[in-house]
């Protein structure tokens, strides 16, 4: 499976890149955060090097002791895994939560300092990916502005066409994932709208019509939640979708649900979200992006768009455990008519990261997790998938031996309450 090379190779490379960045930028970090922060980098680098050693030598996974907000949650989860007789070393533990633990453990080394507790050790990579995608954003933004003009007067057929197009754009935006590339550069190139036709054959499951029926039936006062994945170009595609839904009066409010810490290299946190809008609105060389940035900031200011930071998204739990673990979040999601889950890790947590038969229905793979109607937009980057037609996995495998892990194949999967 993809689990072993992830923990053995990909994760240690991510750690090495953090260590290298901290060393190269130590002077700049000292200038921005003070000499004490610069001194504390020595201890952080030492802790990250120790973490890398533990990972590569299959040491037992240790409890957290940093006093962070979810420290007790993680330690209780580790205790439960031990009580259940599960493996608790780096190569024997369940892949999904042990990979999540690595990112929580990285944060731990920063929480032990006074000056760098809020330091985003992936920020430079996310912002570089954003800047390198500006040309593609501009082309997509120009197309979007054309669709927004008179959107409230669009026919139902035209709205459905635009909805399905934007769903696909949001899906393929998920290809830009820095964790799958071990932190190497990932940015969008070309005109994504023009690329959609050739990408259509790579969509393994398409429930976009059922999602459209859900939105259409939800009424103009409905709430839509988006559980976000990557910053940069993918975030931009999600904002385009949200803008069309609001402008066309299909949706009254969009709630974006973000991570509360640097996570899987490129996942969106509040700083990334607001930095994106600020950077776009301050763009003096591209009026399209400037106008969209200003427009989107107004949505946030008017609370038509809301930004929520939910601790659960960086817990080790799968989503079928949410109702028991975080009942308040579960009931909050139930307020939305549709909850859109972006990306690979959210998908794995939706289906419990279980090695299902690929033909098991997507709704069944959710194992009872159904706070509302659910739409998953995911490009495959892990060998876990459900809801495919008979023989479809075999056909994909005959075309591309790496189809489950290379991010070149996607699913648009819907599970309704009824």
Polypeptide structure, described:
This protein is an alpha/beta fold. Helices cover 51% and strands 9% of the residues. The protein has helices at residues 3-24, 26-33, 35-56, 71-83, 95-111, 123-132, 134-148, 156-173, 192-199, 208-217, 233-247, 270-281, 287-301, 322-325, 327-333, 344-350, 362-365, 392-399; strands at residues 203-206, 223-227, 253-258, 305-309, 338-342, 373-379, 410-415. It is globular and about 60 Å long.
Gist of the model:
With 418 residues, the protein is of the alpha/beta class. The chain has helices at residues 3-24, 26-33, 35-56, 71-83, 95-111, 123-132, 134-148, 156-173, 192-199, 208-217, 233-247, 270-281, 287-301, 322-325, 327-333, 344-350, 362-365, 392-399; strands at 203-206, 223-227, 253-258, 305-309, 338-342, 373-379, 410-415. Helix 3 packs antiparallel against helix 5 (95-111) and helix 7 (134-148) packs parallel to helix 11 (233-247).
